[in-house]
Amino acid sequence: QVQLVESGGGLVQPGGSLRLFCAASKSSVSIYIMGWYRQAPGKQRELVAQITNGGGRNYADSAKGRFTIFRDNGENTVLMQMNSLKPEDTAVYYCNANGAAGTWGQGTQVTVSS
To answer: Which of 37, 48, 80, 105 could, after both became Cys, cross-link 95 (CB 3.0–4.6 A)?
Structure first.
């Protein structure tokens, strides 16, 4: 079974940027869709952005214009560039492969605060 390992979270001031990176443990496995979800305290987990192996992208309204998702199909890695971060972006961000019923990473904390 594929495992996902995330990195890149941290503390940033409002208006700042962060880059989240996720790598699947097996580069040879075909993964149709990879993406990022997030869960803030007291809230449900929500989709932030996802990308198919054909390059099709889908963003939450809150991420449009600020976040960009990239993917390397050959390496089964996904990267999300987050700009103009807001305090409401504070959450644990989870890498995902193949949707809600698929595989999840362990999560990485993103905190946006002055």
So the answer is: 105
- Rounded Cα distance between 114 and 102, Å, is 35
Angstrom distance (rounded) from CA 6 to CA 79: 10
CA 86 to each of CA 12, 13, 15, 66: distance values in angstroms, whole numbers, following the listed order: 9, 8, 6, 10
Where are any strands of DSSP class E within 1-114? 4-7, 10-12, 18-24, 33-39, 46-52, 57-59, 67-72, 77-82, 91-97, 103-104, 108-112
d(CA 22, CA 27): 12
Summarize pLDDT for 29-72 with one digit per residue, the tens. Answer: 889 999 999 999 999 999 999 999 999 999 999 999 999 999 99
39-42: Cβ within 8 A, 24+ apart: 39/91, 39/92, 39/94, 39/107, 40/88, 40/90, 40/91, 40/92
Residue with the two structure tokens 């996720």: 22
